[in-house]
Amino acid sequence: PIPVRRAMRLIEAHPSVERVTADYDAGTGVTLAVVDIRTELPNAWRAAGVSPSGVRECEPVSFLFTGGYPLGAPKILLRSDFNRNHPHIQPSRSGGPPEPCLVAGSPRGGTAT
Fold first, then answer.
1. DSSP 8-state code for residue 74
2. Could you give the angle at the alpha carbon of 44 between the alpha carbons of 99 and 62, nearest 5°?
């Protein structure tokens, strides 16, 4: 979809983005984009490629765009084994991939839970 392609171009243009891959499912209208984002690790951790808490030098972040995008924000998820002890990680009962808290409230409407 054109709005998702536009979003992908904007994401790819960010200086911290290393790579973007995307798959579109015509049956559901969902686009899953995986964005590899370079983090700003201190030099001591950069050599190892990972921090003591498990943050990687390059973190994959998933963006799920529904067929309703841009009327609804994409769902943003971190890798399944991302350390949930970091601040600003939404609580989850399902055990699915961690969802970062990006705004004061949900970007999809309503309030953060």
1. P
2. 20
